[in-house]
Amino acid sequence: MTRQYKTLGEFIIENQDSFKYSSGELSRLLNGIRLAAKVVNHEVNKAGLVDIIGEAGDTNIQGENQQKLDVLANEKFIQTLKKREIVCGIASEEEDDFISINSFDNNHQNKYVVLIDPLDGSSNIDVNVSVGTIFSIYRRITPVGTPVSLEDFLQPGINQIAAGYIVYGTSTMLVYTTGDGVNGFTLNPALGTFYLSHPNMKFPETGKIYSVNEGNYVHFPQGVKDYIKYCQKEEDDRPYTSRYIGSLVSDFHRNMIKGGIYMYPKSSVASEGKLRLLYECNPMAFIAEQANGIASDGKGRIMEINPTELHQRVPFFCGSRKMVEKAEEFIRKYN
Ligand SMILES: O=P(O)(O)OC[C@H]1O[C@](O)(COP(=O)(O)O)[C@@H](O)[C@@H]1O
Ligand SMILES: [Mg+2]
Ligand SMILES: [Mg+2]
């Protein structure tokens, strides 16, 4: 007899009462993300066959050449969330500024803001390597009934009420937390349904995988260089294995299952690193912490950083507790 898996829809309903503000709104929002994930998954899976490969011809506010799939995924998530009557604002990697969304009755009754990285790992789209989507959800802090404002988005990660990612890989999975542990759901493409395949996901306390773009080694701070040398040294349970897919979501997902550390440090060519605090680092940090992992900027907790800009970047060290603590130890030696 095949094992009965709970569906994502059932799980969302069953768990909505454990949610602090449970009024069904977050469930509707998560269901919106579930729907958009399936739409984007459909496009990603046929990327080689239709004209969504390659550059879209524009650059985003970060000066990156937007890929066609970046733009398409951005449109699909924004359209789907707009229609759900619970979102008052959306910020996205692919949008210069936040988008204010007014409720149908035009008096700003919606309570949630969503920050998204619609397509993570853009450099891997054309070469058939796994990519993802990342989302972060907050309750607005400005009063309901007034237009959403920038301060609703510039909240520290500790204020997140939910966060998650979708990985479009050998299978498509949606992994999320509402502050009550981390659960992973695998899409059965034949049925178009997500099933609870990975309940209560946890980072192993330590691991043997380090993920960093070693091509930037010469530009890294000495502490980071020393930690990488430590990972490569033949001693105790080392050397560790180097694994770097170049898609944050995929590297994070593997390390959460097997144990490992992902690093995107600052460097002499990227003074604050590359990853964006609001829609990459904060959501992954929330998931990591809910799964007994750690997320740091090398000095302290990512989720305690007070954001100042929508697209600000921060150095990022995330994964198994003992490995991130060791990396911080090496970095602190030079502070
Ligand atoms: O090619 P690099 O410099 O190693 O950067 C790879 C990193 O950049 C990212 O692609 C940034 O994300 P986007 O693709 O969403 O811009 C991460 O997913 C990945 O870990
Ligand atoms: Mg990204
Ligand atoms: Mg992206």
From TrEMBL:
Major location category of this protein: cytoplasm
PROSITE patterns: FBPASE
Pfam families, per the entry: FBPase, FBPase_C
Record: residues binding Mg(2+) 1: E93, D117, L119
SUPFAM superfamilies, per database record: Carbohydrate phosphatase
Annotated GO CC locations: cytosol
Subcellular location: Cytoplasm
GO biological process: fructose 1,6-bisphosphate metabolic process; fructose 6-phosphate metabolic process; fructose metabolic process; gluconeogenesis; sucrose biosynthetic process
Pathway participation: Carbohydrate biosynthesis; Calvin cycle
The record's free-text note on cofactor binding: Binds 2 magnesium ions per subunit.
Cofactor(s) it depends on: Mg(2+)
Annotated Mg(2+) 2 binding sites: D117, D120, E280
Matching InterPro entries: FBPase_C_dom, FBPase_class-1, FBPase_N, FBPtase, Fructose_bisphosphatase_AS
GO function terms (MF aspect): fructose 1,6-bisphosphate 1-phosphatase activity; magnesium ion binding
Domain named Fructose-1-6-bisphosphatase class I N-terminal: residues: 6-199
Assembly, per entry: Homotetramer.
Family: Belongs to the FBPase class 1 family.
Name of protein: Fructose-1,6-bisphosphatase class 1
Naturally occurring in which organism (per UniProt): Cellulophaga tyrosinoxydans
